[in-house]
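Key idea: predict the complex, not the pieces.
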Amino acid sequence: MNRIFNDPDRMVEDAVSGYVKAHRDLVSATANPRVIKVNSAPKAGKVGVVTGGGSGHEPAFLGYVGEGMVDAVAIGEIFSSPTAQAFHDAFKACDGGAGIACLYGNYAGDNMNVKMAIKMAAKEGITVKTVVANDDVASAPKDELAKRRGVAGEILMWKVGAARAAEGGSLDEVIAAAQKAIDNTRSIGIGLSPCTLVAVGHPNFQIKDGEMEVGIGHHGEPGVSVMKTKPAAEMADMMVDYVLPDLPFAAGDKVAVLLSGLGATPVMELYILYDRIADLLGQKKIEIKHNFVGNYFTSLEMMGATLTVMRLDDELDRLLARPARSIGLVK
Amino acid sequence: MTLPVNAAGFLVTDLVKAIVAQRDHLSEIDGAIGDGDHGVNMAKGFNLCAQALGSPTPGLKESFGILGNTLMAGIGGSMGPLYGTFFNEMADSLDGATELDATAFGRMIRAGLDGVLDIGGAKPGDKTLLDTLVPAVEAFEAATSAGKPYRTALNDMTEAARKGRDSTVAMIAKVGRASRLGERSRGVLDAGSASCCIILETMAASVASKLN
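Result:
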């Protein structure tokens, strides 16, 4: 292990402190060191958009706080849900009196902490509604959608929900848009190397050199198959073949495509993958209207990539196109 | 014997010592199918509680409340809300109780269990801390309704907790992160069931030490 840190147990604190210093023109710290907010929050009459999750996925989650994006974020330990208190404080940090849309990913810890935070907020008269992302097709069969994990599709859900809030949408309208976004989104990951929490010192799962794991989760959750690493074009074919039939996407669809590295993948290699993905969708008469290629949702220093595809209607298209300024995503 | 509730805060300081002492052991268990941070997180939360308790240690109701709130606010993950709820519900159950006799103790652990069932959404057999907690609470209740002495009921509780913990080895995880491992989660202990066993064993031993 050869990494950059001071105290392995204080890596989140140190990183958040650096993040706020680096981006003070856009975000600020709050009284809770595990909550940051966009400088302009709270805005009276606007629905507050909150997310939260474990650290180690940067720029997720904190990197999506910005103008036209998420208003406040709850920050957890590495790969561990934020506390109920952090979610609650994030709600308060952007409560403009119009309610809070809490848009997060389907993990046991997050579900519990959000549930408790909502109870805390209710006592203070703050209404919170949620959308739980479940875009990872490899994490459970299609008839068990509620068991699926949320992965990089969360970013598109945040973008859509936040844009609807920025347009002046009511809480129910924001929630409906975010729900529609995730319902039309599917993702799959491929992992080529494991990742190591510094405090642990060794990887908690293994991927052999020369092998790849299709369907791997953002914390190394096992995928659907392990095989010899294929050339990029074949990887792209496999990813597309998992994602498209699941919704299913069809000829004539307009889509957004997000291809994210998992932390250690050279960005160059993401473009090699994207080159083929774009061609494949073109052959299938699926029109890419928005695309994002880069490190959008990582897993420490894992090698690999996640492909996310969202089917658009006019509303989703409009909301994705709306201007946004955050460190993770600019439109 | 008498064990006044307002003089039983030592139970919580005993819990802090026990969890902190098992920090590395718990992380090692978690490393097999989790992310290896269970001991670190638990020790962090219980240490925060020790600081918040101050000296002298408050009564048991206040001490459990402080423990529940520090875990909830301090450690996040799944364990923050689960154990936070467990200790907060136990604190609430002590409203109006003056003696920590077998009746109050039984009511207390039942309240803790009900709180965990409500927030967690898991059930016995899912390879979670419930596989320790459910049989332990039931064993205590069975012993007291059979008219067994308090000390014997505590022993039964400890024994059931250990058996419950060990039963998780053969299980496949159904909830939480380890559930993604499917068959690969079989063959090792569940870290939450191990920490829950430490908590119940410690509570039983601490109370028993005050019984004649």
